[in-house]
Amino acid sequence: SRRPGTPGARFGGAGGSGGSGGSVGGAGGAGGNAGALSFGAGGAGGAGGGGNTTGGAGGAGGNASLLFGSGGAGGTGGHGNALQGGAGGAGGNAGMLSGSGGAGGAGGSAANANGTGTGGTGGAGGKSGVTGSGGDGGAGGFGATTAGMGGNGGNAVAVGNGGNGGNAGKAGGTAGTGGIGGILLGNNGNNGKA
User: Fold this and answer.
1) In this structure, are residues 118 and 84 in contact, taking their beta carbons and an 8 Å threshold?
2) Which backbone phi and psi does 42 adopt, to 5 degrees?
3) Is residue 171 part of a domain?
4) Measured in whole angstroms, how far is the alpha carbon of residue 67 from the centre of its chain?
5) Among 3, 37, 94, 171, which has the highest number of CB atoms less than 10 A from its own CB?
6) In a domain, 87, yes or no
7) Could you write out the DSSP letters of every residue in 142-153?
8) Which residue stretches does the UniProt record annotate as biased composition, category Low complexity (predicted)?
9) pLDDT in tens, 134-156
10) What domain count does the chain have?
11) Tens of pLDDT, residues 27-59
12) Is residue 27 part of a domain?
């Protein structure tokens, strides 16, 4: 279930977790956005539930208030036993003037006794404000057959570092790319490990 930030709320509420069981796990709820003029942070996205075949997706992190505050973290993808791990939720964006982007959620794993399954993709990191760093990308989920891709790091705007890219779900997979550093001051984020 989703618990969004009420209008004018200082902070966005956290998203609820998705239910587990059955073929497909439930998706995690999105984090609530902070009230536009509240100077608050976005709420975290809820985790996706596990499923017998496919894991539920993690909820996206909420966005910060209009001018200030950090974005909420994305939720973790659920474990998919037979087929596919759930994707991690994207991190929320910071306020325009100041704040860091939220981190992307990790992708869910997928593996069973037959040694099959594809890991979920990690969520992308959120964008920063004029000052502040981009959010890190989430790691890809482990997959017995195919590794989940790491999420890309979020970009900084003017002063701050780009977020780091998420690692691949296992060796040989595709890692996320580091975000771009601020145009005035800041370093690019590191690429994840493949």
Assistant:
1) yes
2) -75, 155
3) yes
4) 21
5) 94
6) no
7) PBSSBPPPPPPP
8) 185-194
9) 999 999 999 999 999 999 999 99
10) 1
11) 999 999 988 888 899 999 999 999 999 999 999
12) no
